[in-house]
Amino acid sequence: MLNRFYNAFDGETQGEPRKADYRSAFQVDRDRIIHAQAFRKLQSKTQVFLSGEYDFYRTRLTHSMEVAQIGRSICHFLRTQRGLLAEDFYIDGDLVEAVCLAHDLGHPPFGHSGERTLQELMLGWGGFEGNAQTLHLLTNTLYENEAGVRGMQATRALLDGVFKYKKLFSEFPRPPGNHFLYDPQAKIRAFVFGGAAIPKSLQAGEKLNAFKSVECQIMDWADDAAYSLNDIVDGVKAGFLTLERIETWAEGEAIDPERQRLLDQLGNAIRRDRLEEVFAQKIGGFITACRLRERNNFMAKRTNRYRFELVVAPEAEREALFFKKMANDIIFESPQLQQMEHKARKVLFDLWDSCWANYVEKGSRVINLLPPRIGRLIEAEKTPAGKARRICDWLAGLTDGMIVRTYRRLFDPEFGSIRDLS
Fold first, then answer.
1. Taking 50 as the threshold, does the pLDDT of residue 401 lie above it?
2. 75, 91 in Cβ contact below 8 A?
3. Which residue has the higher pLDDT, 48 or 58?
4. Is the pTM above the cut of 0.70?
5. Considering the domain 8-202 in this protein, what is its CATH number?
6. Residue spans in the chain of domains classed CATH 1.10.3210.10
7. What is the full DSSP assignment across 1-59?
């Protein structure tokens, strides 16, 4: 049965048209993401704890899979509510799954600490942002080889679904903050909007960054639902979140009756060793907290993806925010993770400096540090900014294990036998 929610505009691809096959355009999007090397690398990229530190915690890969499951479930739930949707008029679960699976592709090794370090290193060269890097992969480098630069020929709806932020690096005052597109991605933004002019009313402040398709909104809430709850579960299992630390943290917070109820639920679940069961039920509550409503904007007549928006019950949003703050204050600000951030910063800075000295500002002694193909891509760039982006792409594409082994080969005198060269 034809799904009337989408039209030819939504399914148009960037670049050459695709050959028709037995799958829908959005199923092709999903399959191309799943079979990409960048997706497999997520299994060894940090979500909260460094890769390999524990064998039960979430990685970027398992997190992305959980977000995709929540996203699909939201689509199914909204479809059962009828009202604005119908049997032949609904938000495509394959598309939302593809958006969710892709949403973290551009994140570098060492989690958010790696992202902050690359933001610092790239500040003078066009910036670094995890979401913008995801788009860079999808449109430019996902299937890159010796023949040249090539993305995945994604549909407009997929690219727009990943487009969490739509304001360019140069459209912000300096420093630009953490949420922006790279300036060369202006053409991708133009493609997503079908060449329509962006109204001045959206250009002020963060309004353009908040202007998202309904699939992007679903992915964003699914992401919030996953990490606001699952970071707590992993934190407890890893011993970072103990009842004593939670009680100490709560003493410094403004705890109203609603927050006290959440604290009591958490404490009881930990004491009874039922945390995963209780928090799995909370994810179900976050899914059923979703509704759709119609909206009016400059894209609403062109695509239903902007005619409708996701509305989340305020109490569910407050609960997610409460657990995110708890995780940030107790886990992410802990000395253990701050020490890891310090180490990640040193690793990235040292590797960046070595690449810069050997591929950009070459001295009298130059060595080939990087894989030959990466070295040739850097050499082919005509400007320092282009070379910086290539170095950044290489660093961002490494897994936690790959970047640590590379660092040790360069700087650890005890590491470097033939067995260590893989």
1. yes
2. yes
3. 58
4. yes
5. 1.10.3210.10
6. 8-202
7. ---TT--HHHHPBSSSPPPP-SS-HHHHHHHHHHTSHHHHGGGGSBSSSPTTS-SSS-B
